[in-house]
Amino acid sequence: MNVESNNKSRIVILGAGLTGLSAAWKLSGQGYPVTVIDRNPFTGGLATTFSRDGYIFDYGPHRYHTRNDALVDEVADLLKGALDRRVRNTHFYFDNRYFQYPLKAENIFSVMDFRQVVKCAASYMAAAARRRVMPAKDRNFESWCKSRFGAELYNYFFGPYTEKVWGVPPTQMSVRWAAQRIAVESLWDAFVRLFNEKRQIRNPYEYTHSPYVSEFFYPMAGIGHICERLRAETESAGGRVRIGTNVDKLLLDGNGAASGVVVSSVGKVEEVPADFVISTLPINDLVLMAEPAAPREITAAAGNLRFRSTKFLFLMLNQHKVTSDHWIYFADNSVLFNRLSEMRNFTPMAAPWNRTSLTLEISCDRGDEIWDQSADWLYERCIDDLESAGLTDRSRVEGYWTERASTTYPVYLTDFDINLALTKRHLSGIENLITCGRQGLFTYVNMDHAMMMGFEAAEGVIEGKAQAALHLIGSEQLYFG
Question: What is the tally of structural domains in the chain?
Answer without folding.
Answer: 3
